[in-house]
Design brief:
Elements: H1 26-33, H2 44-52, H3 64-75, E1 79-85, H4 94-101, H5 103-117, E2 119-127, H6 131-145, E3 156-161, H7 170-179, E4 201-205, H8 206-218, H9 220-224, E5 234-240, E6 246-251, H10 256-263, E7 270-275, E8 281-284, H11 285-288, H12 295-300, E9 309-314, H13 319-332, H14 339-356, H15 364-374, H16 383-397, H17 399-408
Parallel strand pairs: 1-2, 1-4, 2-3, 5-9
Antiparallel strand pairs: 5-6, 7-8, 7-9
Helix pairs in contact: 2-3, 4-6, 5-8, 13-14, 13-16, 14-15, 15-16
The protein binds flavin mononucleotide and iron/sulfur cluster (SF4).
Iron/sulfur cluster (SF4) binds next to helix 14 and helix 16.
């Protein structure tokens, strides 16, 4: 039975100097955590990662150890590690906070990965908008090149990712680094088969790499000691739609209610929560309140932990208009190369906006319900799948509101506006 009296906040990734001190220096990082163990950056660490149960934190919750093993088996010593710090999700800030404050933890994870999979290059891919994160990583890379590092250095370069939602998708990231074009490519081959420069490429989220760097030092059992439900470890979450928004490190399995409390949001003041960001889905607050933020459990109930966004919708906000605004954003972020994504998402967004504005045509609601079921799996990447997944959750959670908007042209909320998450 987990100890629910333990504080919600955990300090593993974000342990160390206070946020106000900015990026941790190499000297402080090594004084606090020590160097990576000499044998850590080798294939041996893969078994430790597998034993830890660490799941990727970029959105898909894929087992990190299994991914490293797959790349190691085909790398022939010439793979590339792509450190994914694009963080294009508008509601998420956790990756930029980690990169800005703990750049050496991320670089340790990248070095570890490079040694384990057999890579000859590390590419640190950071979103254009994340200036503090970029500066911090640039400085950290320079600090390391000025000292004799352990394990030995691997050529590391920083690439600025375009400020687009899909630029962080793994094939788009590889495409941009190789050909300066951040549109996803048709897969297979997946990056682990044929990535940057045609070489096997490990694409790993920055937070996943930070956890790996700690697991290599403290072990799988240490990692697994945290966790209140099935998935072990801690995670960074971005909390929005509350009085005190921010990035927090929590034990996985912490409830939505505990997060609301952390942000100063009473249950009566909220009607729903968006879990996993724009690639995730809505949950009604009555169902969500006691939900554990646990990737495995959430997947089993057809929800997503995703990139750790927990975004509350105020009780007096309009879920239909909020969803319409998100669909409009998602349509605008299509990489404009697959017909169903380009035209389908735009059509869905336009109809959802009409419904939200109380200006729907007779068949509009039936139309988006039908389209939401038709678009998934029709693009080169999963962008449209994410968008229609969010829409389907909205149709379920705000079903009555959609009907009221579509048939009466009215909203039941006191505020016919966008006091949204
Ligand atoms: C449309 C789209 C956008 C994505 N954006 C990001 C991103 O900004 N950062 C990220 O780490 N992963 C992003 N991903 C997930 C990556 O494709 C990939 O799965 C991830 O970087 C792998 O790292 P992980 O296994 O550590 O999670 C995105 C996926 C999709 C479909
Ligand atoms: S599905 Fe959409 S976002 Fe993905 S590659 Fe095709 S057009 Fe671009």
């Amino acid at each position: 039975m987990p100890d629910l009296q333990r504080p919600v906040h955990q300090r593993r990734l974000l342990d160390g100097p206070p946020a106000l001190s900015g990026a941790e220096t190499l000297t402080s990082h090594v004084a606090r955590l020590g160097q990576l163990p000499p044998r850590a950056a080798s294939r041996e660490v893969i078994a430790t990662l597998e034993a830890s149960g660490l799941l990727g934190r970029g959105g898909a919750s894929f087992p990190v150890g299994r991914k490293w093993r797959t790349v190691a088996e085909r790398s022939g010593g010439r793979a590339t590690v792509l450190v994914n710090g694009a963080e294009g999700e508008p509601l998420s800030a956790k990756d930029r906070v980690l990169m800005a404050l703990r750049p050496h933890l991320v670089l340790d994870g990248a070095l570890l990965a490079a040694g384990a999979v057999g890579a000859e290059e590390i590419v640190v891919y950071v979103g254009a908008a994340h200036t503090a994160a970029r500066r911090s990583l640039e400085r950290a890379i320079a600090e390391r090149s000025a000292t004799a590092p352990s394990p030995p250095a691997i050529p590391t370069r920083l690439v600025v990712a375009p400020d687009r939602y899909v630029a962080g998708e793994e094939s788009a990231a590889v495409h941009f680094v190789t050909e300066a074009d951040a549109r996803p490519t048709v897969t297979p081959p997946r990056p682990f088969e044929r990535g940057i420069g045609g070489r096997p490429t490990l694409v790993q989220n920055v937070e996943s790499l930070g956890h790996a760097a700690l697991i290599a030092r403290f072990g799988a059992d240490w990692f697994r000691a945290a966790g209140r439900a099935e998935t072990r470890g801690t995670a960074l979450v971005t909390l929005t739609g509350v009085d005190r928004p921010g990035v927090h490190e929590i034990e996985l399995g912490t409830t939505v209610a505990a997060l609301a409390d952390l942000g100063g949001k009473a249950r009566a003041d909220t009607q729903g929560v968006l879990l996993g960001g724009y690639f995730g889905g809505w949950a009604a607050i009555d169902e969500a309140w006691d939900l554990a933020l646990d990737p495995i459990a959430l997947k089993a109930s057809r929800r997503a932990f995703g990139c750790g966004v927990v975004s509350f919708l105020a009780a007096d906000a309009c879920g239909v208009k909020t969803t319409a605004r998100i669909m409009d954003y998602m349509a605008g972020q299509s990489a404009a190369q697959c017909g169903p994504c380009v035209f389908g998402l735009r059509a869905i967004a336009d109809v959802t906006r009409r419904i939200g504005d109380g200006a729907a045509d007779t068949d509009d609601l039936a139309r988006i319900e039908r389209w939401a079921g038709q678009l998934a799996g029709r693009g080169a990447c999963r962008h449209p799948d994410g968008a229609v997944g969010l829409l389907a959750s909205a149709l379920s959670v705000f079903g009555e509101e959609f009907v009221r908007h579509a048939s009466l042209g009215r909203c039941s909320r006191p505020e016919f506006g966008e006091k949204a998450a």
